[in-house]
Write a structure and sequence with these properties.
With 266 residues, this protein is of the alpha/beta class. The protein is built from 8 helices and 9 strands. Helix 2 packs across helix 7 and helix 4 crosses helix 7. Bound molecules: zinc ion. The site of zinc ion has 6 residues, from loops.
């Protein structure tokens, strides 16, 4: 849409790079390979058999997770990371199995990618393409989770906070509905501003032997957030925020400098 507008107006005024950010977004651009050699496990949440949440337009969460992970993997690899894809084909149904696969591949960290829904009490119905569907427009935005039961709980928390901060700094807003004091939610916030939660018993996080977080990229039962979550520009923005956060928590240059110092080459 924006591109089409730019092409249409080309010549009448300069369509410059400053116009590229949409909706107040600021992409966390990077130069070089800030994640050089970092082994990042990206887990596609749910499976082809158990789709997870169903969007306002009737699309299974698994497909949102798969598409977003595809974009994140491409961005992370451009930043020098070695991406370990977990459940890329959608056949892994177990939860603990995902962390075990990441461990076998010696992942430095684990990011489980999901898309969100809300408590059933908020559901309404609408008709989309002739089919009656559930939706809820109450809550939208991303959220990040860490487990205090993870083997590297401190680093997991650091990573969750860094991802939350990077998403917030990109111009995105978190959803705080997981903090609502109702059954199924009631998750303590580690940082309210950037939407980071503690969720001790999230199986995929507490079974991981490396720092691990779960990212809900958006609320797909929300009619607008669903469209946003499918927007490649949004996925790219989130991917860049992940690079920024990972490079903060796992700084590569310092490690290299340390090694150089070890060999007397400062
Ligand atoms: Zn999910």
């Amino acid at each position: 849409m924006l591109l089409a507008l730019c092409l249409f107006t080309w010549g009448t005024h300069q369509c410059s790079a400053e116009e590229a950010p949409v909706r107040g977004w600021t992409k966390a651009e990077f130069t070089g390979k800030p994640l050089d050699g970092l082994r990042v496990a990206l887990d596609v949440g749910h499976s082809r058999l158990t789709l997870g949440a169903i969007s306002a337009r009737g699309r299974g969460e698994f497909f949102f997770n798969r598409d977003s992970v595809g974009v994140f993997a491409e961005v992370l690899e451009r930043a020098g990371a070695r991406v370990i894809l977990i459940n890329g084909d959608g056949t892994v149904t177990g939860l603990a199995e995902r962390a075990i696969l990441a461990g076998k591949e010696k992942a430095d960290c684990f990011i489980s990618v999901h898309h969100d829904s809300v408590n059933d009490k908020y559901l309404r119905t609408w008709t989309h393409e002739g089919v009656s569907r559930d939706y809820a427009d109450n809550f939208r935005g991303y959220s990040v989770f860490a487990s205090s039961k993870n083997a590297k709980a401190g680093r997991s928390r650091d990573l969750a906070l860094a991802v939350g901060a990077a998403l917030f700094d990109s111009g995105l807003k978190p959803t705080l509905h997981h903090n609502e004091p109702i059954q199924g939610e009631n998750r303590p916030l580690l940082d309210e501003r950037s939407g980071v939660y503690e969720f001790a018993d999230l199986v995929v996080l507490k079974t991981a032997t490396m720092p691990a977080i779960l990212l809900e990229c958006g609320v797909i039962i929300h009619r607008e957030d669903e469209l946003l979550a499918r927007d490649p520009a949004y996925q790219d923005l989130v991917g860049h925020a992940l690079v920024k956060a990972l490079s903060t928590v796992f700084p590569r240059e310092q490690k290299k400098k340390g090694l150089l110092r070890l060999f007397g080459r400062d």
